[in-house]
Specification:
Metallo-beta-lactamase, Chain A, 6-stranded mixed beta sheet, 5-stranded mixed beta sheet, 5 helices, 11 strands, MBL_Glyoxalase_II, metal-binding, RibonucZ/Hydroxyglut_hydro
Length: 192
Amino acid sequence: MIDNLAAGVRAFTSNAFLVTGERSVLVDTGANFDVVDALHSRVDDLDAVVLTHTHRDHVGNLEAVTDAFGVDVWGYDPSIDGVDHAIADEETVRLGDHEYVALHTPGHKNDHLCLYSASAGVLFAGDLVFQNGSFGRTDLEEGDREALIESIDRVLERIDPDLEELHTGHGPSVTTDPYDHVELAAQMARRA
């Protein structure tokens, strides 16, 4: 099961997805809201935190989560404060009951990862792409439009056209034709 703990939060935050099953994993911690309370109301324990990237809105609650649950944090670049272990490009990680492949997708930020499970039909896209063809900002430090376009193309080549769920770093998840939203983001990033 995938539950966005930031749903309905009015503060500036990223989405924070709790994936439950064999392993309870939090994908991004969000910021500026009590994610620990939200976690405690849903699970007794947490197995890991996995980060799509380390922008403040995605990791603002990181210390609170690690303090409360004593969990390790996984991300692309362990040289960044708070990241305990590296997830390499193409490495497989277990979220809930499914294996996800980590895809290094720079362009929005150098340490950006997307997580894709073909068997679950799920893509955690972080801030790479959003609903309706929106895509991640490239005007921030480490932003690079050409790299972002290459990353979107890479994800498009990897995901199945029958993708069932697209979980993005901001805004609602997409469960109706999510592949089309990724495809549109690839087109829109080229036009902007």
